[in-house]
Amino acid sequence: MGTKLVLGLWSLLCVVSLASSKAIVSCKDKTTCRNLRIITSNSNEIPSGLAQHRQSAESIDLHGNLMERFFGQDVGTASQLKALNLSYNLLKDDLQAIGNQVQEIDLTYNQLRYVMVPRGVRIFLAMRNKLSRVTFAGTIVEELNLSKNQLDRIPDISRQSKMVTLDLSCNEISEVNFDYLPRSLSYLNLANNRIFQTSGDRILSSLQYLDLSSNILTIVDKSFNSVPNVKELYLQNNEIVMITTEKTFSSLKSIDLRENDWDCNSLKVFIERNNVRKLPDNPSCKYGSLGTNGLCCIQSSAPYADRVIRYNKRQHEALQNSSMHQQRGPNCANYKPSPCDGDDNKVYEVANAAANDVQSLVAQDKEALQGILNQQRYLLENKQNEKARIENENNQLQTTLNDLTGYIGKLYQDDGFKVPAKPDEQLKQIFTKRDADNKATLEQVIEEERKLQNLQEDIAKIEEELQDLDYRKERLLGDINARNATVVEHEKKIKELQEKIDKRG
């Protein structure tokens, strides 16, 4: 029952943890309070809201609070903190003073322009910000997602020897040099950038997923030899004309080559060399016509010269179309949203949901408190019943004590004591007298035992003397018997002599 009471009080602390703070703090796991959800618009309120859970909190969720600033000191007292969710806020400044024990940070949907990844972080998510520069305080990042930002180059990740997953999709990157990527990479997403060139010859033998779709690549050259074990390769929606690498990708399981500007001959050679599953092109080809391999391509003896001419023609048509749009307005029917488009209202929608969460948390907490109150009432009733039982036992014990006190008083009088005294003093005097009587009796017993021992010793001596007399008696009897035998023999001889004498006479 005591354990249930402690758990009930602990649950009460987890549910109502804001007796002196404006921040709304709720434990996602009611019994241990390791995963906290904090709702507040002022980061200054976080330390007071966190005070009761600084030893237990391993994960803190601060998403959707519309905070404009945050410092690591705000959660610095949480010594066990491993994960920090700051997504869907309005943070503009780099994080400061994040403890080395924090391993996971989510900064999705903020307004950061620069950030330094803290030293102990292994998973760092910062999608949909305004990042143009990212640096690293440590070298142990395993997963990095910086998609939907404004990076014009790949951050310096050459020292991140444990990085497995890298997502830089929907940025403004123009070049990729495989020499500056860590060999540990398994997943690389560079889709929806402005990449027109790849280079480098470092072998990334662990890379299995590579997405370069929706860029402006025009050629797949020998730099792709850097990914010999790639299993999934996405090159759709580029301007690729030719594949010049002679590499056979033996591990390739899936490839997407659609919506490019393929030269039919180059495409045919690559497909025959790499017999893998591929998605068919749209019959209404962006360039050329649908070939026998299911992809759109153009048959040409001078692939790049033809495309330069066509490019200039397209530029001229684009200028004409732009002029027409200015006169007539844009044609919204042909508008297609980009996968990189963000929703600027998303942060406020999440913040509004967080506000609704407050009401939900209050309702949940009220229900939880009612349950705890009912439990406490049940425990109180049990305690009252237990109290009544204990009082009854106490009454029984008091009766027994009174009987024992009367009995001791009687013994006190029987032993001849006259002076009034308390029961414990009476019992002490009784035991003292009894000890003295017992001591005298014991001395008498000892004396009697001594006399008995003396008698036993005398009896032993008499028994020894009797044994000696018996021995002497036996010897005398033996001598008498021997002498009797001699007398009989003599009498026999006398008788024989007498008979001889009688015969002679």
From TrEMBL:
Repeat recorded as keyword: yes
Alphabetized UniProt keyword annotations: Coiled coil, Leucine-rich repeat, Repeat, Signal
PROSITE patterns reported for this sequence: LRR
Pfam family, one: LRR_8
Family annotation (InterPro entries): Leu-rich_rpt, LRR_dom_sf
Residues spanning the signal sequence: 1-21
Protein name: Uncharacterized protein
Tree of life domain: Eukaryota
Organism name: Culex quinquefasciatus (Southern house mosquito)
Keyword Coiled coil found: yes
Residues in coiled coil: 373-407, 438-500
